[in-house]
Structure formats: C-alpha cells, structure tokens
Specification:
CATH architecture of the largest domain: 3-Layer(aba) Sandwich
CATH topology of the largest domain: D-Maltodextrin-Binding Protein, domain 2
CATH class of the largest domain: Alpha Beta
Helix content: 40-55%
Radius of gyration: 21 Å
Order of helices and strands: HEHHEHEHHEEEEHHEHHHEHEEHHHHHH
Number of strands: 11
Shape: globular
CATH superfamily of the largest domain: Periplasmic binding protein-like II
Number of helices: 18
C-alpha cells in the first residue's frame, strides 16, 4: 500500500472510530505527528491497539514545519489539544525541564526502557529522567545509485569527502534524462534545510557560536559551507531545490531522479521499498567529511511525549508503550519484513541477526554512533546538539536564518548577504536573551 493511500485511510478511519468511541464513552487519544513514512505506517496498525485496549485514536498528521509550530504553540499556551505529541531531541529536554511534559519514569517492566539506545535515551531526558520515548532514531548518511556511480566510473568510499561527492554529483548529472547528481534539503525551517546545513557546517569547521555565545556566521568556515552547498546544487541539483525538504527529495529519489541523496538514515527502508523505482540499485555510505574529524551527520529521534495536564495520561502511556515497544517492531517485521521496522531506537534491534542482515542496518548504527551532541564541532562550542543548539532561543533564530539561506539558494540574494543577515539576526536575538 502506498504511503499516501495509507495516510488518507488512517486519518479518515481513525477520526471516525475516535468519534464513535467517544460517543460510546470509551477513552480517545488525540495524537499530533509528522507525515514521515514510518509514522504513517504506524497509523496503519493502530486499529490493533484500539481492538486490544478499547482506546480510540484520532490523528493530526502534519508537515514537519507545521507540526513543530502547532505543538510548540499548544504546549507553551497550555492549549490542551493533544494527548500525545511527536517531538524530538531539541524540544524534549527543554520542555521537560519546564515541567511541560509528563515524566516517563514509571513505564512497565515489560516495556524495558533500559533497552533504548543510550544515545537516544540521553537526548530525550532531562536530569536523567526520560520525557519522551523514541519511535525511531536516526542519523544521516549518503544514499546513492550504484548503477549511476558505476556508469560514471567511480566507486563510493565508506566515508567520502565533500570533494568526492561534488565530483560524483557532476558526473552523474544528466539533464536530458532528468537525473540530478545530488538532491539535498534547501527548504526553510530549522529542522529542514537548517538542520542539513548546520550538520554540513560541522564538517567544514564551522559552529553557530563561539565559547562566549557570539554568533559565527561572519567566518570563513560558514562562507565555505554555504558557497560549496549552493555551487554544487546549482550545478548538479534539481530545479527548485531551495524549497525541497525530506519528503520532496524522497519522492525525487524514488522516481529515479537523484544520483545521490544525503539525508535521514530512516529513509533507507523507503528508497529500497516497493514505492522506489530504483530499489535494487541503492548503496549507502557515511555522511561526508572534509578531513577535519567531523562527518556531516546529525542525531535525531522522533519521539512520543505526553503534555502535562492531559486528562488521558494513563491511556497515553499505554499507547506509547505499544508504539515504541519491541512488540510493535516484531509486528511490523512479521507483516512487512525487517527492513521496514522503525530503526535506531533499541539496542536489542542491533543484536538481532535478522535485522543485521538488512543492507543498511549496520551503516545506520555506525552513523548514529559517530554523532556526538556533546562534541559536534571542530572548534569548541558552548552548546549541546549536532544539527541544533539546545537552547530555547535556537528554534526561532534558526528558522529565520534558514529562510535567509533558502533565499540565497533561490538566487534572491547572495550568499554573502544571507550570511551577513544571519549574523545580525543571531547577534540581536542572543543579546536580547541576555547571553
């Protein structure tokens, strides 16, 4: 079943079942989530949860930037629209510290919270308390067409440099055949194009702030990063790349229109799945580096959290245990194969020989383990986070900065102008916040 068809069926179907359950006096959960493939797949199995528990589920499924805005507004205003929110490693520790989330420190013994990968549990905790349970964990890596790479007379290294990526992208680009050598996120949004360019900048020796919290966009390292990105994408990327995010590039790759795509490791199951026209010719490599000791990969988890004040706390915990537990993983494996289970969240998954036989399993784990949120930059920095700085002000600042970068990608201003604006935006906001 296609992702789009599954999404339509589950949103309509579970909306109806939630209404029926509410009318009959049964519990009903409203869950906000992102329109990524694994989350959509999870919705398709939720009828089993409802059948087992009598708890109906109503989904609010949103594009990534919209989801971030909606759940942030709801949690900060105590709007109470949702019983469960899909959030990530940036929001969770900050919101947990503010008392905005229900602690997940009393999950059942059968759930086995100790099995969560330490990198994921650490990023979703505050002061040692888990505040969100990872549905899946990810880093980023290179996904590429092995047939096009071979035709170009090149061989992808396990850990490529950016110079190799640019060379390969140019060699694989065939405008007449509508094949772009490389597809990357240029879409505005701190978690979209902003996340990509920040992770990339780490490998170029850049950082958001120096150790005194001074903005660093007026540095050579940032200029090198953004100019390299734009020059490579202008030469070898798709038209309109300034507005492409995860889902747009996934569609392009699956249609055979990308030679390489550097993005979330979770995409591996989709580029090798039934909806991909190139599923039999996809290879994987670590995110690129510049020989400075840092790869351009991020660390993230899409996780389920319960906003404080919900009237359905017990039922919400039931759902979280169901959706992020090992039983769900085994259910998906039995129905759709091990390649399609949510990756990157549990240690036991990477001890399972059936899963390790999946072509991208080990590369995903290697990528996750190579990302260090406590040491993400070449020069010292004062913040925790790989593709973000874990401070409350970051989301607003980075959203504005990413808009300036996207405008430069689209040719509406120069890279130099975008970086100057980024420096001014960040400096003003940090001074206003008292840093």
């Amino acid at each position: 079943m296609s992702i789009k068809r599954t999404l339509l069926t589950t949103v309509v179907g579970f909306g109806l079942s939630a209404g029926i359950a509410a009318a009959e006096g049964h519990a009903s959960l409203t869950i906000a989530t992102v329109n990524n493939g694994d989350m959509v797949r999870m919705q398709g199995y939720t009828d089993q949860f409802t059948a087992d528990t009598g708890i109906a589920v109503e989904w609010v499924t949103l594009e990534e930037n919209v989801l971030r805005s909606r759940v942030t507004t709801d949690i900060t205003t105590k709007g109470g629209q949702f019983d469960i929110m899909t959030i990530g490693m940036y929001e969770t520790p900050i919101w947990g510290a503010n008392g905005w989330l229900v602690p997940l420190d009393d999950l059942s013994a059968e759930y086995n919270a100790a099995d969560i990968l330490p990198a994921m549990a650490g990023g979703l905790s505050h002061d040692g308390t888990l505040y969100a349970a990872p549905f899946y964990g990810e880093s980023s890596m290179v996904m590429y067409r092995t047939d096009l790479m071979e035709a170009a007379g090149l061989e992808m290294p396990k850990s490529p440099t950016w110079d190799f990526i640019a060379e390969a992208a140019a060699a694989m680009t065939d405008r007449d055949a509508e094949i772009n050598g490389i597809c990357l996120r240029g879409k505005a949004g701190w978690g979209e194009g902003g996340a990509f360019i920040t992770a990339m900048s780490n490998s170029f020796g850049a950082r958001w702030f120096d150790e005194e919290w001074n903005a660093q966009f007026d540095t050579e390292q940032w200029a090198n990063t953004v100019n390299f990105f734009k020059n490579m994408m202008d030469a070898s990327g798709p038209a309109g790349y300034a507005t492409n995010g995860f889902n747009e590039n996934l569609n392009l790759f699956n249609q055979g229109k990308c030679g390489m795509w550097i993005d979330a490791t979770v995409a591996a199951s989709f580029v090798t799945g039934d909806d991909s026209t190139v599923a039999d010719s996809v290879g994987f490599a670590l995110a690129p580096n510049n020989g400075l000791g840092k790869n351009a990969n991020w660390l993230w988890a899409w996780a389920l959290a319960i906003p404080a004040g919900t009237q359905q706390e017990a039922e919400a915990k039931q759902f979280i245990e169901w959706a992020t537990g090992t039983g769900y993983i085994e259910m998906v494996a039995a129905n759709e194969g091990w390649a399609n289970v949510p990756p990157g969240a549990r240690t036991s998954l990477y001890e399972n020989p059936d899963y390790l036989a999946v072509p991208f399993a080990q590369m995903t784990l290697d990528s996750i383990l190579s990302a260090d949120p406590n040491n993400s930059t070449v020069e010292p920095s004062p913040y925790v986070g790989v593709q973000f700085a874990a401070i409350p002000e970051f989301a607003g600042i980075a959203t504005e900065v990413s808009q300036e970068f996207s405008a430069a990608y689209a040719g509406q201003q120069t890279v130099e102008e975008a970086l100057a604006k980024a420096q001014a935006i960040t400096t003003e906001a940090m001074e206003a916040a008292g840093y």
